[in-house]
Specification:
- With about 290 residues, the protein is of the alpha+beta class.
- It is about 10% helix and about 15% strand.
- Strand 6 and strand 7 form a beta hairpin.
């Protein structure tokens, strides 16, 4: 079954617009003589449109008084007779309103105007990022400027030295390999052949990567109620805390951030696809209701 998206509609009763619509909501009246599509325009800060306007349908008519909110080119309006007749001169005048004063393409001998691009200013560029494409760029080191003026392996090596520090670099004939200073050791490596138990209120691990061979990590061990597990999960510290926690009030895993599913993956409920990157699940129906 294909996905179905329904908008609000009226299938009986009087013609005319709904009394209210949500902001950007659509509604269609199916009654004969008043088959018109309506749109909720604006927002009163509570999700309700500030006005309801007609935008199309078989019985929709464009006039300056009844559809003052409509602008732009009209391609199909149902009752085309309300457009009246127009001449090429009137069309030319209308296009001038859109494109500015002067002759337009409907004139017998149109005037072609060369656009004014302005004159580039001279001088040097400052506060630039990325690779410069011309000389005269300020803020570069002497060796970098020399490389841009005369590219060569030697000049590139000197330029890289400016960026990476003093000493020979990999472009030298005999590069100097420097052992990094990691600071004084305050302990030694520790390998345990048995279990490790830490009894304390806080355990701090200052390592770049934490590798755990076990495939299951248990949190709140010993908790016997959901209340005791409320708020448990993971917290990643940054400019703000980024969390993935279990919340008792909603009995749900709750993320403080967006969830980005990898390409080709989908969201499932009870083993059935409900949402992918390009479509809703085949059983999903979105119904706008009636008015």
């Amino acid at each position: 079954m294909a996905n179905t998206i329904r908008i609000k509609r009226r299938i009986g009763g009087a013609t005319g617009a709904p009394s209210t619509l949500g902001s950007s909501e659509l509604a269609f009246n199916e009654n004969s003589g008043g088959r018109i599509l309506y749109y909720g325009l604006g927002d009163n800060s509570f999700g309700v449109a500030t006005s309801v306007i007609a935008i199309g349908g078989p019985d929709f008519a464009v006039t300056a008084t009844t559809n003052a909110n409509l602008t732009g080119h009209v391609t199909s309006v149902g009752n085309a007779a309300v457009l009246g007749s127009f001449t090429s001169a009137q069309l030319a005048t209308a296009l001038t309103d859109e494109t500015g004063t002067g002759a337009n393409v409907f004139a017998t001998s149109p005037t072609l105007v060369t656009p004014l691009l302005g004159t580039p200013s001279s001088g040097t560029l400052t506060s630039c990022t990325g690779l410069p494409i011309s000389t005269g760029v300020s803020g570069l080191g002497t060796n970098v400027a020399a490389f841009l003026a005369t590219p060569s392996s030697a000049n590139l090596a000197a330029a890289l030295t400016d960026e990476t520090g003093t000493g020979a670099n990999v472009f030298a004939t005999s590069p100097t390999l420097v052992t990094p200073n990691i600071g004084a050791a305050t302990g030694t490596s520790l390998v345990l052949s048995g279990s490790l138990t830490v009894n304390g209120s806080v355990t701090t691990i200052s390592s770049t990567t934490l590798s755990v061979a076990d495939k299951n990590i248990e949190l709140a061990t010993g908790s016997v109620t959901d209340a005791a597990a409320d708020g448990g999960g993971l917290t990643l510290h940054g400019l703000t805390d980024h969390t993935w926690n279990w919340v008792l009030a909603t009995t749900s895993w709750t993320s403080s951030e967006h969830v980005n599913v990898a390409s080709g993956k989908s969201y499932y409920i009870n083993g059935t696809v409900v949402l992918s990157s390009t479509s809703l699940g085949s059983g999903i129906i979105i119904d706008g209701g009636t008015f």
